[in-house]
Amino acid sequence: MKTWLIFAWRNLWRNRRRTLITSASVFFGVIFAIFMGAMQEGTYEGNIQSIVQFYTGYAQLQHPDYWEEKTLQHTITPGDSLLRAMQDDERITHISPRLEYFSLASHDENTKVASIVGINPEMEKEVTKILSYLKKGQYLEKGSDGVLIGRMLAENLGLETGDTLVLTGQGYHMVTAAGLFPIKGIVDFPSSELSKTMIYMDIERCREYLSAPEMLTSVVVMLEDQEQLQPVENTWTQKLDPEKYTLMTWREMQPEMVQQIDADRASGVIFLLILYMIIMFGILGTVMMMMAERRRELGVMMAVGMKRIRLVAVVFLEMLCIGFIGVISGILISIPIIAYYVDNPIPLKGKAAEAMAEYGWEPFMYVVLDPQIFINQALVIFVITIVIALYPLVTIYRMKEIDALRA
What we know:
Layout: H1 2-12, H2 16-56, E1 59-62, H3 66-69, H4 80-88, E2 92-107, E3 110-119, H5 121-127, E4 134-137, E5 147-150, H6 151-157, E6 164-170, E7 176-187, H7 192-195, E8 198-202, H8 203-210, E9 218-223, H9 229-239, E10 246-249, H10 250-253, H11 255-293, H12 295-303, H13 308-343, E11 346-347, H14 350-358, E12 364-365, H15 371-388, H16 390-398, H17 401-405
Parallel strand pairs: 3-8, 5-7
Antiparallel strand pairs: 1-9, 1-10, 2-3, 2-6, 2-9, 4-7, 5-8, 6-7, 11-12
Helix pairs in contact: 1-13, 2-11, 2-13, 2-15, 11-15, 13-15, 13-16
């Protein structure tokens, strides 16, 4: 076997140009497959990051009935010991308590329905990207009487920073809630739906406004990455009293996004299959060209007494070497390309950017540097190369020495 491998390797480099052309077809196939897979998974990861960093977090501690009804009758009052225990969990990077409800927002003769979110300003900015969306004014301070308001809601009500907003609604146990709040800052959210409705205020001021002392509707939980979500969920599901608390993941809060990712991943498989077919025919074309050029050479080798089985083995080893060269070089070149686009995502413009913004996603095409993608795509291309290697093997077995010598 060692002798055959040496013979095959020397055969490859007797015609460098032919070998490089054939290896290049494998090389480019590997690069295209890896980049497509990295971009597909990177887009999913980017969209998930946009959702969790923008509003929901990776998970939320809630009352078991809150998500379905979203009323102040289903609030939670976690003690300091529970919040400290969550902060002490090494897998949890940040938490942020919230108190959320709905009110009517008015200014002059304009009135709109608004979503009120009471937050701890210092903790919230570590969890979400709210501070990065602040376009006018100042961010909230702890104990502040002011509010942050969505840009489109401010425009609809005719508000600017420094103006006074009137909020009226119902608080805890149907108590009338009313108050005057100065506009501290204006936030321009990527999602137009949120920009039309969101109002943020300090959580203590929100509790006072809704007559809900010590109450929370949720505690937002942030993790280092998606891989830690399931272990954290399993741990805290066992620790929490199921009658008082539930840890709801972003997948449960955003089922539409999960369905969209699953559907897009299924369509991505179809596109990958099409790409694999294109790659397969590209490699097959170069192999057919190689066999046509070597027809006389192979005929001479059989004529001088080389057995077909040995010739088949040598040619198969040549194809393995070509596949190995193409796959390894493709992976090595792909790594810096993917690494560059990890730090420099591809920006989207026009209608595509607007569509992404409507979902609250940042208008970029992300890629991810996942070793599993490199391994999977490289293995697929290598298997395709091995399958294509059957063509020269069948050609050699069916080849007649006389016809080959006349080629």
